[in-house]
Design brief:
The protein has 8 helices and 6 strands. By secondary structure, it is α/β, with parallel strands linked by helices. Helix 3 runs parallel beside helix 5. The model has no long low-confidence stretch (mean pLDDT 96).
Length: 199
């Protein structure tokens, strides 16, 4: 099976990181803390302006990209899936938005370094915009995509089965081509059942 895997929200617990650092940023900048955890984008999640959002990423993006811990068991499960003959395609929409000038152009390099440091193996690493993810899945014959972004889940699930990594901000996203998962071992169980034709 060809398995597509997103990075932020799937390999990294984006939700917890955003709430942790978003509230820190609000306090540091004397902003009212107005958290809407059901929202995906920072401007809506924290009631920030676009400028405040950019300042937030400018301050914390490099630290987030280089130092975040992977989700528990992600590396272990991906290695097991590869040993069992599956192909792993890491497909991420990471880009340079908010990147401090001195680091501009290094997002792909930092991402590769982070994957290597955390022993996350893959057959192919692909950087595509959110709007290109569905076509990327089709071009690479991805059988199932593991994703957290509400808009990406809905778009990709039109033509490719999606495992939705459960987060507060994607609760409402559902259809017959979406399977909810709560952990990497849950993902492993879902994929094995799909391979055996049980789901």
């Amino acid at each position: 099976m060809n398995i597509g895997i997103d990075v932020d929200g799937v390999l990294v617990d984006l939700e917890t990181k955003m709430l942790t650092y978003g509230t820190k940023f609000s306090v540091e900048n004397n902003l009212n803390i107005e958290v809407k955890p059901e929202e995906y984008w920072e401007t809506k999640k924290f009631n920030w302006s676009a400028k405040q959002e950019e300042e937030f990423w400018n301050k914390y993006l490099v630290k987030y990209v280089r130092e975040s811990e992977p989700r528990e068991f992600a590396s272990e499960i991906i290695e097991k899936l590869m040993q069992e003959g599956n192909k792993i395609y890491i497909i991420t929409a990471r880009n340079e938005y908010g990147m401090p000038k001195e680091y501009y152009g290094k997002m792909q390099e930092f991402t590769k370094e982070w994957l290597d440091k955390n022993k996350i193996k893959y057959d192919k690493l692909i950087f595509k915009s959110d709007k290109e993810k569905l076509q990327c899945c089709l071009d690479n014959k991805v059988d199932i995509m593991i994703e957290d972004s509400p808009s990406n889940i809905l778009d990709i699930s039109k033509k490719v089965k999606v495992i939705k990594y459960d987060c507060t901000y994607n609760q409402e996203v559902q259809n017959s081509n979406i399977i909810k998962a709560y952990s990497w071992y849950h993902i492993y169980d879902i994929i094995n059942k799909l391979i055996k034709g049980e789901k």
